[in-house]
Design goal:
The structure is a single chain. The chain is built from one helix and nine strands. By secondary structure, the chain is mainly beta. The strands form three sheets. The chain has a four-stranded antiparallel β-sheet with strand order 6-5-8-9, with no helix packed on it. The longest helix has 23 residues, at 9-31. The radius of gyration is 23 Å and the shape is elongated. 15% of the residues are buried.
């Protein structure tokens, strides 16, 4: 009786290499959000505070949306806007995070645009006591309600 031959790893890669590389590309395609229906936030940065009103925080956002539907304006209808959904959390307390919704306007993202940036998006907080660390989380939604990834940034007081 003849012993079965061992298959070398080289012949395995040679035989299944195309399949493995296709699976890798497909995995990266899905994991990176390319080609999906949801918007994708590429960058979310704290860009400063208002000098006259330190309760106002500014953020810069870079995004992509393969569907170009952050805003939809049906012919003869009223526009349907996507939104920026901010979650604000005091990291020094166990309070429930606060949510703030800002509608996306044509000034922020022209109709049908597939990528862009929104600079100095202002968010004003009202509070008598200021936490030492605040976490801001962002989710973008398009006009169909598809939600983006949720990047976050922590702002810390120097006091």
């Amino acid at each position: 009786m003849e012993k079965p031959r061992k298959q070398s790893s080289f012949s395995f890669v040679k035989r299944y290499g195309a399949l493995l590389s296709s699976l890798f590309v497909l995995t990266m395609f899905v994991a990176c959000g390319v080609g999906g229906e949801s918007p994708y936030v590429r960058s979310f940065r704290f860009s400063g505070q208002d000098a006259q009103n330190p309760q106002t925080f500014y953020f810069d956002i870079e995004w992509t949306d393969n569907q170009g539907d952050l805003i939809l304006w049906p012919e003869g209808g009223t526009p349907v806007n996507g939104a920026l959904l901010f979650t604000v959390q005091d990291l020094d307390k166990q309070d429930i995070p606060k949510e703030v919704k800002i509608p996306i306007t044509p000034v922020m993202s022209p109709l049908g645009k597939l990528e862009g940036s929104m600079n100095r998006i202002g968010l004003t907080l009202t509070s008598d006591v200021w936490p030492a660390r605040i976490k801001f989380t962002l989710v973008m939604t398009d006009a169909k309600g598809n939600r983006s990834n949720n990047p976050w940034v922590v702002v810390q007081s120097n006091n």
